[in-house]
Amino acid sequence: MASINIPTIDFAKLDQFDAGEGYGDEVNKLLNAACSPGFFYLDFKNAFGTELVLREVKDAYAASDRYFDQSLETKMKDFRKGQPASRDRGYKFCETDESFEMSSDEMSDGSLSLPEALAVNESSLNSLHQHCYIAANMLLDCLSNALNIPFDQYHRDVLPSESGLKLVSEPSIANVSEVTENKHTDSGTFTFLFYEKPGLQINIPGSDEWAFLKPPAPGCAIVYGGNFLKLMSNGVLQSPLHRVTQLEDGAGKRFSLAYFLRPEEGAKERLECHL
């Protein structure tokens, strides 16, 4: 099995308003990782405020277990009829997984009404979302400054976006040979992923080989770029090909948490007009 090592970025060292020793080196490490392979671990533990991420992620896993353990009939009450196929707000399911996505816009303006099974952890979910939002924008600022490209003009808070925090249940199955192929790239700007059981594979750049990425250590996330990040950077920053599978045979529960930073509404069309 192929293997690949990806760097760990210390979020505490990326604060340009408190830039201390190692700031420039950490930004260079971030830039290199975003260029190739496009994946890196982000360590929240040393940054003021975000040291709480470890506890918040545990709460989110517990909320996920409680929510997805409900009957399909109960969860379907959270299905949003009429939303575009590309939008994932609320409850969704398919043959291999089910999810519940909380819109950043709705979390920010207070219009999101969580189902009872999640409302117990509403404060923790809001805090996790806020910490991921802060981190994603910090990464964007660092890369924008390094490349001298104004990424922020496509991520203005005053305009709506499809950014959000998603809870995912994707159980492992009895036979690994029967896992459905699902290789893809993400469409947005950044994805932050938290998970405990091995399953994420990345395509090794320049080859047909795939490698498992170790689950992030407690207090860390795996971060990777999406198609819009690649588009904004004229192909300098990558949107890596990846998929979800499993190491071995065996059915069981498996949860992950994902935060998606996506561009403001209409940004893709506006950017493509200038390319």
UniProtKB/TrEMBL annotation:
Name the keywords, alphabetized.
Answer: Iron, Metal-binding, Oxidoreductase
Q: Which residues cross the membrane?
A: none
Q: What residue stretches are annotated with the Fe2OG dioxygenase domain?
A: 160-263
Coiled-coil annotated residue ranges, if any: none
* Taxonomic superkingdom: Eukaryota
Signal peptide (residue range): none
Keyword Iron appears in the UniProt entry: yes
InterPro entries named among the record's database cross-references: IPNS-like_FE2OG_OXY, IPNS-like_sf, Iron_ascorbate_oxido_reductase, Oxoglu/Fe-dep_dioxygenase_dom
Gene Ontology molecular functions? metal ion binding; oxidoreductase activity
Q: What Pfam families does the annotation carry? A: 2OG-FeII_Oxy (PF03171)
SUPFAM superfamilies, per database record: Clavaminate synthase-like (SSF51197)
Metal-binding recorded as keyword:
yes
Query: Per its UniProt record, what PANTHER family does this chain match?
Result: 2-OXOGLUTARATE (2OG) AND FE(II)-DEPENDENT OXYGENASE SUPERFAMILY PROTEIN-RELATED
Q: Which family does it belong to?
A: Belongs to the iron/ascorbate-dependent oxidoreductase family.
Task: Tell me the protein's name.
Answer: Fe2OG dioxygenase domain-containing protein
